[in-house]
């Protein structure tokens, strides 16, 4: 699983998508009769967000921007592990055996998380939070030394998605152990989906929403062309483009191990923790980009595939019809590998 950054998430900056819009912001001297791209951005969840939408009403910016801010604040207040009185933080402080009714949004994210966990036999596991913290990638702060085997095994007793119990009829969540849930690998994607819901509720049907590199797109630009985004090359020295894809009615998320890590005695320890071992991943997968109907699903799936690695992850994606693009480290450099479901999105 992926570690957290201040306020909510972790997976960023482990992976990133650069939004390439290739479109001017048309400001027509007060005339708003023609569609134009409007934009609102700012800080959120320890990173930043940008929302772009197509509208013939320039005044929609003043109306919609506060709604977007309120939506993100609500997600953060529900799911952040960096806010002491957030809904999730209050749940995490409770002992084994505790059960409570939770908000619709939190229950939705936990339900999707459990589905991903079951389908991958625990490769995706939101209860991995204590291990994320142990390795220095959570709210407890950074570490410079790898923890002892004894400490890892001790913490692992508090980890396991099967110890998290959901009651769909009553929207209740319970814990069979002293669990600490970390939604950093999926909540950012959910935040993107919430921003999309705000836009659609305001009658906007063409937009590109981005939070910390995770995206969701719908419709097209004013000139009728599709939204185009770039998949970043997994190099720590800069932000190079690996591939450009065209997207519509889709969520996009990337996970990787090339930005958030620490080194000790020449060994790199990734922020992505394998729940099966309690230790950072050690395989050759540098990054994976996933396309799914929702950004929350793409976000969680990208982490799932990162934990599984280049071989098992690719096979899982093919078997489950996932549109995924893998960048694998080799002695000759990076090697690309994509599932059949991903190929139609490439521009070249």
Automatic annotation (TrEMBL):
Needed cofactors: Mg(2+)
Q: Where in the cell is it found?
A: Cell inner membrane
Q: Which domain of life is it from?
A: Bacteria
Pfam family for this entry, one: ApbE
User: What's the protein's topology in the membrane?
Assistant: Lipid-anchor
Q: What class of enzyme is it?
A: transferase
* Listed EC numbers: 2.7.1.180
Catalytic activity, reaction form: L-threonyl-[protein] + FAD = FMN-L-threonyl-[protein] + AMP + H(+)
Q: Give the keywords, sorted.
A: Cell inner membrane, Cell membrane, FAD, Flavoprotein, Lipoprotein, Magnesium, Membrane, Metal-binding, Transferase
- SUPFAM superfamilies assigned: ApbE-like
GO molecular function per UniProt: transferase activity
What is its biological role?
A: Flavin transferase that catalyzes the transfer of the FMN moiety of FAD and its covalent binding to the hydroxyl group of a threonine residue in a target flavoprotein.
The family annotation for this protein states:
Belongs to the ApbE family.
Task: Show the PANTHER family listed in the entry.
Answer: FAD:PROTEIN FMN TRANSFERASE (PTHR30040:SF2), THIAMINE BIOSYNTHESIS LIPOPROTEIN APBE (PTHR30040)
Q: What name does UniProt use for this protein?
A: FAD:protein FMN transferase
Q: What is the lineage of its organism?
A: Bacteria, Pseudomonadati, Pseudomonadota, Gammaproteobacteria, Oceanospirillales
